[in-house]
Design brief:
Blueprint: E1 2-6, H1 10-22, E2 26-31, H2 35-45, E3 49-51, H3 54-59, E4 64-67, H4 71-83, E5 87-91, H5 98-110, E6 115-118, H6 120-123, H7 126-133, E7 140-148, H8 154-158, H9 174-190, E8 195-202, E9 208-216, E10 221-227, E11 236-240, E12 243-247, E13 256-260, E14 265-269, H10 274-290, H11 296-320
Parallel strand pairs: 1-2, 1-4, 2-3, 4-5, 5-6, 7-10
Antiparallel strand pairs: 7-11, 8-9, 9-10, 11-12, 12-13, 13-14
Helix pairs in contact: 1-10, 4-5, 5-11, 9-11
Bound molecules: NADP nicotinamide-adenine-dinucleotide phosphate.
Length: 332
């Protein structure tokens, strides 16, 4: 499959490096707003073509597009590529609103192409290890899922700059960037909650810098915490009445173990390089394209979880007062 990338930041580089591991996705083209930057990025990664015009990219012969632009552009860029018959793997959050996501899923179906959210958790083989481990800790009573990572862009923000990630007009902020990594496993492992409560702390730019959400299930509460302004030094935990699962990262699912009530430990998985995790994502996506029959069930799960996540994120934003200067796309 020949693919193009939209965006030239480190995450695009990381995806390209990951895709090389399995070799099923061949980088053909780079889109950048800047020809020189796109040219340098293409040269470094062996891509033969550079586009600075999205319509030209859409009319080109690439089979698929990996979109890693700021969040506010995801839906419009995806719409353009799907209409042109390209398969799309788009970075999280795949759209701002669930209504946009439903429209784009339908558009993908009508154009006979695959459309998926680039979320490492769902493509990670360790997801099965984690799901199986839930059966080893007795009755699950609660969980704390945390993704708090001090942003490399925060010093620039403090100097008075406005990086995209702290700019509400880019549909950005902590929930969209990191909170989503907690929402995915909460919904995937425990299903949709009966109720969601949430709050956030805001920067002067209007973006949420940190926040939390409570997913209430009746028999348990799953607490989600996330911050771009401080670094977590502890594990996420899932508590059962016979043991506790510890996770170093809710997105990478690295360094996971069970500690049983008697203090004994069972290691589940150690460290996995980010490149390999992106490789799982690229490989999973290429299988959705090349073997639609075999992957039908997984594709359906991906879409169901993506939509449930988008709806939960919308509810969290409304509870926490997170607002963007953003106009959702609608079908014309
Ligand atoms: N899966 C992961 O682990 C992971 C990690 C980080 C980020 N992400 C996701 O990846 C996406 C990009 O994040 P990022 O931090 O890389 O964003 P970013 O650096 O702000 O922007 C990404 C790319 O978009 C283009 N861009 C920047 N500002 C733009 C603007 N105002 N208008 C149009 N295009 C613009 C730039 O490419 P050109 O200048 O070449 O056009 C840039 O390389 C986000 O959706 C984020 O959630 C995922």
């Amino acid at each position: 499959m020949k693919y193009a990338v939209i965006g030239t930041s480190w995450i695009t580089q990381s995806f390209i490096d990951g895709a090389k591991i399995h070799g099923k996705m061949i980088l053909d083209a780079v889109y950048s707003r800047d020809e020189k930057r796109g040219g340098e990025f293409a040269l470094k990664n062996g891509a033969s073509r550079v586009f600075t015009d999205l319509d030209a990219l859409a009319s080109s012969s690439v089979d698929a597009v990996y979109i890693a632009s700021p969040n506010a552009f995801h839906a419009r860029q995806t719409e353009k590529m799907l209409k042109a018959g390209k398969h799309v793997l788009c970075e999280k959050p795949v759209t701002v609103t669930p209504a946009e996501l439903e429209y784009l899923m339908d558009l993908a179906d009508r154009n006979g192409v695959i459309y998926a959210e680039a979320i490492m958790y769902m493509f990670n083989p360790a997801r099965d290890i984690l799901r199986n481990a839930l059966g080893e800790i007795g009755k699950i009573t609660s969980a704390n899922l945390d993704f708090s990572q001090l942003s490399s862009k925060y010093p620039a923000y403090k100097r008075g700059e406005l990086p995209n990630i702290f700019n509400p007009s880019m549909a950005a902020g902590c929930l969209e960037d990191l909170g989503i990594y907690c929402v995915y496993p909460a919904l995937d492992l425990f299903g949709e909650p009966e109720n969601i409560k949430a709050s956030a702390a805001f920067l002067e730019s209007g973006a949420d810098g940190s926040g939390n959400a409570s997913f209430e299930y009746g028999d348990k509460t799953v607490t989600l915490t996330y911050s771009k302004l401080g670094q977590s030094r502890s594990y996420s935990q899932i508590f059962g009445d016979e043991g506790t699962i510890l996770l170093e990262s809710v997105s990478k699912l690295t360094d996971m173990k069970i500690v049983f009530n008697d203090g004994s430990e069972k290691a589940l998985i150690g460290d996995v390089p980010k490149e390999q995790l992106m490789g799982f994502e690229a490989d999973g996506f290429s299988k959705l394209v090349s073997s639609p029959g075999e992957t039908k069930e997984f594709y359906s799960l991906l879409r169901k979880t993506a939509l449930a996540t988008s709806k939960a994120m919308e509810k969290i934003r409304s509870e926490a007062g997170i607002k963007f200067d953003y106009t959702p796309i609608t079908e014309e």
